[in-house]
Design a protein that fits this description.
728 residues, alpha/beta, eight-stranded mixed β-sheet, six-stranded mixed β-sheet, 19 strands, 48% helix
């Protein structure tokens, strides 16, 4: 095991090199912080030390504070785990010391790592080092409050308020080259020159050949007070618009303003107080939980603990060049994986290639891809209208229409044509994999690779395994997912798998409320106010009504005892409404796809209510916004409990990640199960039981939920002693 330590070596030139060693990113664990304080105190005492260079081992400066401590604080409520080094280490020990410090940066300096560098009197970096303060992603403020609460104070003084606000509120990282232009980095040098330059720079400061700059006391980069307040006013309005339910962006701006008005130290003290409140907030707990949950998705018992190593995937074939197939192909070529794109004829093939080209050109237009890179990436695509090119591919991803007979025919062909090691994957969103592979003899190589639309943008990859899928295939696909910058979630085989199955009650509950007399635009507003990117009716306009009906049939067949068959969607089609497709759905869409309520839909909804005949005494039900929210999301929590109980998912945290990345559930609420636990199983169970008695099986509580409610056990607690392999 690698020893976590901070070392110090003093050279003949009188420069002490203090080096952090805590692989892989030199996280600032409590022991590292204590080591820094100890070595700095020693350097201050020693007469042979003139100046200090602080750096990190292994080609990285520091990735920031050890987030495990944050989780421990949130679980225990004990803030003393953090200590208080914002003043003691960053200001008293480093910045106000009688000997100067220079940060020698390689690789990255993020969060607390960047703050440590900013407390030094100069910063020297290698090219392409990543710099940033990403703490807002964790529901806290830069950076880590009582541990490092000067990110909001130093960054504006080094780069100016406008740029600092952008970096902090967007959790945006910049490269060292940009940092140099902004004034955050004093010099960018090659890796071979880094330590020599940093040593000379530190000596130059000590001997007054270079200025001795204390960042916290600088004001030359700050805008005038009036201009600063205008910048902060605009930032507050933007934060309120984009993150209305989050308190920490506003607190961050308050702290920045305090520092500008009353001085850096006053800002530090205000931030320290604010952090104590925010760290234990529900939003911070949710975001920290989501962070750790994402990191855990690739740990799959019985698969990733077998010692299997992923095989190299050198070429992938994609069947189908529609929106999904072209998106999948785009994801692959963006990660330099050659793709064979197959279509049924040359016309459809060209359309598919054009879609990939359009996906990539949008990056060129935004400036995130050069024309040269675009051409090189497009050269990775080979078009095909037959299977000749499939004889040397390592994986095939089928992305054709959801027709069982067609998929069976395709997989039968693939078995005969593809090499014996080839992974045979399907992008189906609902169809049982056993049906797809029923006519093959290679079911150990068949796996689901369910991307979410648009596939080159959405970050989730749902890996679906059957009882026969080889662990090696799963390990390979997990690795592919990581290589193409997706978050892979391994789930079992059932109708809808994990994400679509969890959320099928979402739309059905909304439709039931609509025919019970609740205004559909009110429903959508309640759901978006909760934090979803769009409400269920706006979402159905986007997805399309035909797709909704076809998917709905699958769930009615599989889970008929707890589905609600709405008449509304078919009535919309009968009235020649198709959502965004023709600009007329529950909403009307202009040429820029901006939505506004469609008054004429009221008559269609009234007809659906008459057809359903479920309104009590023929009158609309009276519900609060809170009841609307619960009647839509409690059935989702309930179905998620069934997914866990059946072993379709191994960990509740996997379903939290799936709900956020697959369906847009707000990350700051931690995910669907985490949110359910914050509400409490007891309340969810009693509410569902009451509604099921009035409105039927859609709301019937699952046995899993009933048991957890009765015993007071969290929904997220592991399912006792289960052989998951037998259920997947």
């Amino acid at each position: 095991m690698v020893k976590v330590e901070v070392t110090m070596e003093v050279g003949a030139d009188g420069v002490a090199i203090i080096k952090m060693n805590n692989p892989p990113v030199n996280a600032l664990a409590v022991t590292v912080l204590a080591g820094l304080k100890e070595k700095y105190d020693e350097a201050m005492r020693r007469n042979d030390v003139k100046a200090i260079v602080v750096t990190g081992n292994g080609g990285r400066f520091s990735g920031g504070f050890d987030i495990n401590v944050l989780q421990e604080v949130q679980q225990t409520g004990n803030l003393s785990h953090l200590g208080r080094v914002s003043v003691d280490l960053m200001i008293n020990t480093i910045e106000d010391a009688k000997k100067p410090s220079v940060a020698a940066i390689q690789g990255l300096a993020l969060g607390g790592g960047l703050e440590l560098a900013m407390s030094c009197h100069a910063r020297i970096s290698t090219p392409k080092a990543q710099l940033g303060l990403p703490e807002l992603q964790l529901g806290i403020i830069p950076g880590f409050g009582v541990m490092f609460c000067i990110g909001t104070q130093r960054l504006p003084r080094l780069v100016g308020l406008q740029k600092a606000v952008e970096i902090m509120l967007l959790s945006k990282s910049i490269m060292s080259e940009e940092g140099s232009k902004l004034g955050l980095i004093d010099a960018v040098v090659s890796p071979g020159e880094l330590m020599t330059t940093a040593r000379m720079w530190a000596l130059d400061i000590a001997e007054r050949r270079r200025p001795w700059i204390i960042s916290l006391k600088r004001t030359d980069k700050l805008e005038s007070l009036g201009e600063a307040r205008e910048i902060l006013k605009f930032a507050r309005a933007q934060a309120k618009k984009t993150a209305p339910n989050l308190p920490h962006p506003q607190l961050c701006l308050d702290v920045i303003e305090e520092g500008i008005v009353a001085g850096g130290l006053a800002g530090v003290l205000k931030e320290e107080k604010g952090f104590n409140d925010i760290i234990l907030s529900e939003t911070a707990k949710g975001l920290v939980h989501f962070f750790f949950s994402q990191r855990a998705t690739t740990k799959v018992p019985g698969v990733t603990d077998l010692g299997l190593k992923p095989r190299q995937i050198k070429k992938v074939a994609v069947l189908g060049g529609g929106l999904m197939g072209s998106g999948i192909a785009t994801s692959l070529v963006l990660s330099n994986i050659p793709v064979v794109l197959k279509e049924v004829n040359a016309g459809f093939l060209q359309q598919g290639i054009n879609r990939i080209s359009a996906n990539l050109k949008s990056r060129v237009k935004k400036g995130s891809m050069t024309q040269e890179k675009f051409e090189k990436t497009m050269s990775l695509i080979t078009g095909a209208v037959d299977y000749a090119e499939f004889r040397n591919v390592d994986m095939v991803i089928e992305a054709v229409i959801e027709k069982i007979s067609l998929k069976q025919e395709i997989f039968s062909d693939l078995e005969k044509i593809c090499p014996a090691h080839c992974i045979l994957a399907t992008n189906t969103s609902t169809i049982d994999l056993n049906l797809i592979g029923a006519k093959t003899h290679v079911q150990d190589r068949i796996v689901g690779a369910h991307f979410f639309s648009p596939a080159h943008v959405m970050p989730l990859l749902e890996i679906v395994r059957t009882e026969k899928t080889s662990p090696q295939i799963i390990v390979d696909l997990i690795n592919v997912g990581k290589n193409i910058k997706k978050v892979p979630i391994v789930v079992g085989n059932c109708t809808g798998f994990a994400v679509n199955r969890m959320f099928f009650p979402y739309t059905q509950s909304a439709h039931m409320l609509a025919v019970l007399g609740v205004d559909i635009y009110r429903i959508d507003k309640v759901i978006t106010s909760f934090g979803m990117p769009m409400g269920p009716f706006r979402l159905q306009d986007l997805v399309g009504y035909e797709v909704s009906i076809e998917v709905g049939k699958q769930f009615v067949t599989a889970f008929g005892d707890r589905t609600f068959k709405t008449p509304l969607t078919e009535l919309m089609i009968e009235n020649k409404r198709a959502g965004e497709k023709n600009g007329k759905g529950y909403y009307i869409y202009d040429e820029k796809r901006r939505a506004s309520p469609a008054p004429e839909v009221k008559e269609i909804i009234e007809q659906a209510r008459k057809n359903s005949k479920i309104m009590p005494d023929g009158k609309p039900i009276v519900v609060t916004d809170r009841e609307i929210l619960e009647m839509i999301f409690f059935p989702v929590v309930n179905e998620t409990c069934r997914v866990l109980d059946e072993g379709i998912a191994i960990k509740a945290s996997d379903l939290d990640v799936s709900s956020v990345l697959g369906m847009g559930f707000p990350a700051y609420r931690g995910g669907i199960i985490f949110w359910g636990d914050s509400i409490g199983a007891g309340h969810i169970y009693s509410s569902l039981k009451k509604w099921s008695e009035s409105y039927g099986g859609l709301f019937k509580p699952s046995a899993y939920l009933e048991e957890r409610a009765a015993r007071g056990i969290p929904l997220s607690a592991p399912v006792a002693a289960r052989n998951f392999g037998s259920r997947l």
